[in-house]
Amino acid sequence: MKANLTTICSIDTQEEIRAFLNRFFAGVDDLTEQKRNQVVLAIDEAIANAIIHGNDSDTEKSIQIDLDVNKKRIRIEISDIGLFDEIMNNDKKDKDLNTVIKEKQKGGLGLKLIYSIMDVVCFYTQNNKSYCLMVKLLK
Amino acid sequence: MEIIQRYEDEILTILLKGELDARSSIDLDETIKVALKLEQTRIIIDCQHLSYISSAGLGVFISHLDDLKAYGGKFVFYGMNVTVYNVFEILGLHTIMEIVRDRFEAQTLMNES
Tell me, which fold does domain A2-137 have in CATH? Predict the structure, then answer.
């Protein structure tokens, strides 16, 4: 089962993207409602990062989401996320909650959510585009 | 998302209706900033109609936690559905935030402080 979606870099599109993802994943066997909600959340977080931090909410730019599901796993690829260096050079996945509270940070928890929910998360560049690849194992 | 506020008995109730994401968290942040300016620091968040929350929404609450405490106030959440509560759980926020089942418990907890 495959699907893809291309959207402009605007956070105004995210509610619609989530609706699309929920419809798509509703057809996946072996994905409980709770897991489906978590996967949608992880994708939403990755898209928000790509739109806001990677592409400065530039509506002239677009990002593409590719979904590929088989019996063993869900594979999600998002491009162009535009923030390869930032991702590779920070430690947000291990961000301490007390530090976030103490420093009154509004951001920084998205990556922690992504790494907590997904079984595989990696970022890479190819042909001047940057990608976020996430895998959720089924069963 | 709709944000509805009600202030009575020195408690501000913020009712969230819909999905709290990167877009709607901007409006919620503004709402809480205004409440702090008005020294309305005892805040109950009515989540009965909140269907989704992302890290941007959580970030709004986290960023104001210490300010509320400094003024002797706090957030108390009630009426969360399983999906929303699960996001708090994944990050361990359910042990830091005060989350109760219903309005009565929220009010009781708020009045204890």
Answer: Heat Shock Protein 90 (3.30.565)
